[in-house]
Amino acid sequence: MSDHPELIVMLTYNDQTVLNAFDIFEECKNSKAAIWGFKELPLPFEDMKRLFAYMKECGKTTALEVVAYTEEEGLAGAQTAAQCGCDILMGTMFSERISNFCKEHGLKYMPFVGEVYGRPSVLEGTIDGMIAEAKEYISKGTYGIDLLGYRYTGDAVELNRRFVAEVNAPVCIAGSVNSYERLDELKAASPWSFTIGSAFFENRFSGTFAEQIDKVCDHMMR
Fold first, then answer.
1. Nearest Cα to 25, choosing from 57, 2, 1, 69?
2. Distance between CA atoms of 93 and 70, rounded to whole angstroms?
């Protein structure tokens, strides 16, 4: 693993994949980000498959994040990820059926923890409860955890800090990373990775999409 949190570029806005995702990736494929992904909606399956295949051709690690709260929706998302040749399945509420499917198909599974609802997602629950939940899922063989840290209705900084410190597995802080202040908080917490999607489309890091990606990567390596 890297010695700094890795950026996962999500070609999404408000938890929906943007329709020009392929064009944006094409413009930014030579940027410094090594991990790329998007959500399960609304791109047609063939478009998703084509884009993930192209990302792999370009040497990228790939992730599909599934914003789904039932087992059936989560399993359908896992099947899509497998058919697209993804490396990582992020999201879904944990289930052993999804976990077993991921193991069988070589997917690294990173489910949500806590009480998650809505789209864009909102996270509720106690920090102790989420840590205990994560430890249970890791003991059952999941690769890591997709933590919606900055979507938390409580103290996000404390959640991120404690969660990363106490969960012995890769943690991705996903959603609403939209400022240098939050990047610095992530550097202090030191998760495996974090996602940025909407903030790039809102130009929160000033520049073209590719310039913003490189700014964030450079900031995290300093």
1. 57
2. 7
- What is the CA 46 to chain-centroid distance, rounded? 22
Residues 160, 139: Cα–Cα separation, whole Å: 20
Where exactly are the structural domains of the chain?
6-221
pTM equals 0.97
Both structure tokens of 119: 């789209």
pLDDT per position as a tens digit, 145-195: 999 999 999 999 999 999 999 999 999 999 999 999 999 999 999 999 999
According to CATH, the superfamily of the domain at 6-221 is Aldolase class I (3.20.20.70)
List, in order, residues 6 or more apart from 63 with CB less than 8 Å away. 8, 35, 36, 37, 86, 87, 88, 89, 90
Considering all CA atoms of the chain, what is the largest pairwise distance in Å, rounded to the nearest integer? 43
Mean pLDDT of all residues in the chain? 97
